[in-house]
Amino acid sequence: MFDFLAQKFSNLFSVFGRDKKLSPESIDTLLAQVQDSLIEADVPLDVARAFVDDVRAGLAGMQLHKALKADEQIMKVVYEKLESFLGGGLQPVLLV
Question: pTM of the prediction?
Fold first, then answer.
């Protein structure tokens, strides 16, 4: 599943590499494709929608950094949201 998603996301983000700014339309298109990719990877629809909504909130009103391309900025947000969504950043429980 993760290899499939990595390949799909890589293809999606490369389309935005030429863009210097993100339009609401391009973000909507990308997020629809992200949701479709998640569903193709057998992620439940409600989980895919929740993830896409979380990414959309992270992208809302975001200004591109001059040093980053649009695809790099989007990848950063998606990576952070995916890591958080999968429980990244949680401290391991030590059993004594």
Answer: 0.71
Is the pLDDT reported for residue 47 higher than 80? yes
Average pLDDT of span 65-79: 76
Report yes or no on 96 lying in a domain. Answer: no
| φ/ψ bin of 37: left (φ > 0), alpha (ψ from -120 to 50), beta (otherwise) | alpha
* Residue carrying the six token digits 């993100």: 22
64: left (phi over 0), alpha (psi -120 to 50) or beta: beta
**What does the mean pLDDT of the chain come to?**
77
Number of structural domains found in the chain: 1
CA dist., res. 33 & res. 16, Å (int):
13
Q: What CATH code is carried by the domain that includes residue 63?
A: 1.20.120.140
Expressed as residue numbers, the domain containing 48 is 2-85
